[in-house]
Write a structure and sequence with these properties.
- Strand 1 and strand 2 form a beta hairpin.
- The radius of gyration is 30 Å and the shape is globular.
- Helices cover about 40% and strands about 15% of the residues.
- It has 16 helices and 16 strands.
- By secondary structure, the protein is α/β, with parallel strands linked by helices.
- The chain folds into 3 domains: about 70 residues, Winged helix-like DNA-binding domain superfamily/Winged helix DNA-binding domain (Arc Repressor Mutant, subunit A, Orthogonal Bundle), CATH 1.10.10.10; about 120 residues, Aspartate Aminotransferase, domain 1 (Alpha-Beta Complex), CATH 3.90.1150.10; about 240 residues, Aspartate Aminotransferase, domain 2 (3-Layer(aba) Sandwich), CATH 3.40.640.
- The strands form 4 sheets. An 8-stranded mixed beta sheet has the order 4-11-10-9-8-5-6-7, sandwiched between helices. Strands 12-13-16-15 form a 4-stranded antiparallel beta sheet, with helices on one face. Strands 1-2 form a two-stranded antiparallel ribbon.
């Protein structure tokens, strides 16, 4: 017997004997050599062989018989996962599993990561939206809070938590959004969730039955649209303009269960809904008996005006559910967001959250609560606004310098992304442009996947929070050269 591979000798011997047993070279019931004889045969110390035998015994591959020796077990633990070998006569393949209607709807949807994932890894100039400036994050302050919490770890932190979330965190969130966003809510209305995506799923489970109609913006955040489609809802797309959802085009007939909106910075086109539209949206919801899901995904970043009061803050009839997240402000892997719901919905949302995953991870909630209460969160926000404003200015200046009036930039007044419409470029050319840019180290994304009915114009979605000003300028310069390689690109035409 030869010992292959790397690692301790006893482990390699164990693996070799196990392989011989699983492949049938050592059949069930066969007596193994004594440890002394095997050690002499292989030139190993007896302790090495004893350790390998002990491991085989512990895992059930062999059995020891007092006064007789060691034998291969009759019932092998890994028999069901032994390496597959072709046979002359194969059993027919099992029929595909019968999936639920929900699972079939999910599978039928376009793969969600496609519009946001880079074409290749390691791109130097990745204009990826939804990713904050990780390098700007105050990791030292965050680490100090973690260390202090870990040193004083309480038994309550190790137990199951409450479905609605850690009470001090819910209080900190309620205080912050009341002051910063004009929200009217108590801590008891706050439910801590695993990112805004879970908030969307919770609302779909709470309010939607298959066949219910849901108003979505056109274009719309794909993650929301897919959640509603997976729930079996019928999507009713309503166009947006420079002021967000066009409330004049909301359906006035037929039942509508829910309207999903991003009024503070419409995703992806960036329109900001004025107060009069927000009030009209609420009047429509009350008149038709619908609810409004307000996704406030990046309202922390405004550059040219003060934030408009949240739709939830104007609601007087309990129609609005408000979703927010820390993933796009702090770091995505934190996976902590929040859902603020009317008081009458709290018990149902808590019950649904409990069935989904019981509760959001407790320790991270405690750390985040301290981070907010001690002022680290808002100090970081102030620095991030300044840094992102500089990145935004660099992007707009670079687009103007290299592309000028050959592009139209929209949605630049807030958030951390813009949409760039390419004048004189066919929509069918976008994927080729993306691949050509990626080959030169520039990652860009098409805006088309966020439409139910893709536009005829070519549009690119530029996220800029995760790049330096220098890299932004260099990436746009490369992109401008790429665009000149396309025969129809960048001809002067009136914007569509």
């Amino acid at each position: 017997m030869t010992l292959h591979g790397r690692g301790p000798l006893n482990q390699r011997l164990f693996q070799g004997l196990r392989r011989s047993i699983l492949e049938g070279r050592l059949a069930p019931g066969v007596r193994l050599p004594s440890t002394r004889a095997l050690a002499e045969d292989l030139g190993l110390s007896r302790n090495v062989v004893l350790m390998a035998f002990d491991k085989l015994l512990d895992e059930g591959y062999v059995e020891a018989r007092v006064g007789s020796g060691t034998y291969v077990s009759a019932a092998l633990p890994d028999a069901a996962i032994a390496p597959w070998r072709p046979r002359r006569r194969e059993a027919p393949l099992a029929p595909p599993p019968r999936l639920s209607a929900h699972a079939r709807r999910v599978i039928a949807l376009a793969p969600l990561p496609a519009p946001t994932a880079p074409l290749r890894s390691g791109l130097k100039y990745e204009f990826r939206y939804g990713l904050p400036a990780i390098a700007d994050f105050p990791s030292e302050a965050w680490s100090r809070v973690i260390a202090r919490r870990a040193r004083g770890l309480r038994i309550t932190s190790l137990r199951y938590g409450r479905a609605r979330g850690y009470q001090p965190l819910r209080e900190a969130i309620a205080e912050y959004v009341t002051r910063a966003r004009g929200i009217v809510a108590a801590a008891d209305q706050v439910v801590v969730v695993n990112g805004s995506q879970q908030a969307l799923d919770l609302v779909a489970r709470l309010l939607l039955d298959p066949g219910d109609r849901v108003v979505v913006e056109e274009p719309c955040y794909q993650g929301a649209r897919h959640v509603f489609a997976a729930a079996g809802a019928r999507l009713v797309p309503v166009p947006v303009d420079e002021a967000g959802l066009d409330v004049a085009r909301l359906p006035r007939r037929g039942a509508v269960r829910l309207a999903y909106v991003t009024p503070s910075h419409q995703f992806p086109l960036g329109g900001i809904m004025p107060p009069w539209r927000r009030l009209e949206l609420l009047r429509w919801a009350e008149a038709i008996g619908a609810h409004v899901l307000e996704d406030d995904y990046d309202s922390e970043f405004r550059y040219e005006s003060r934030p408009v009061e949240a739709v939830q803050g104007l609601d007087r009839s309990g129609r609005v559910l408000y979703a927010g997240t820390f993933s796009k402000v702090l770091f995505p892997s934190l996976r902590i967001g929040y859902l603020i719901v009317p008081t009458g919905m709290v018990p149902a949302v808590a019950a649904l959250k409990f069935l989904m995953d019981m509760h959001t991870t407790a320790f991270e909630q405690e750390v985040l609560a301290d981070f907010i209460v001690e002022g680290h969160f808002e100090r970081y926000l102030r620095r991030s606004r300044t840094r992102n404003a500089a990145r935004r200015a660099a992007l707009l200046a670079a687009l103007d310098e290299h592309l000028g009036d050959r592009v139209e930039v929209v949605g630049a007044n807030a958030g951390v992304h813009v949409v760039v419409w390419l004048r004189g470029v066919e929509a069918s050319q976008v994927e080729a442009i993306r691949h050509r840019a990626a080959a030169q180290g520039v990652g860009i994304n098409s805006v088309a996947p966020h439409y139910l009915h893709p536009p005829r114009r070519a549009g690119l979605l530029f996220g800029y929070a995760c790049l330096s000003e220098r890299d932004i300028r260099a990436g746009v310069a490369i992109l401008s050269r790429v665009l000149r390689e396309f025969p129809q690109a960048l001809r002067r035409r009136p914007s569509a």
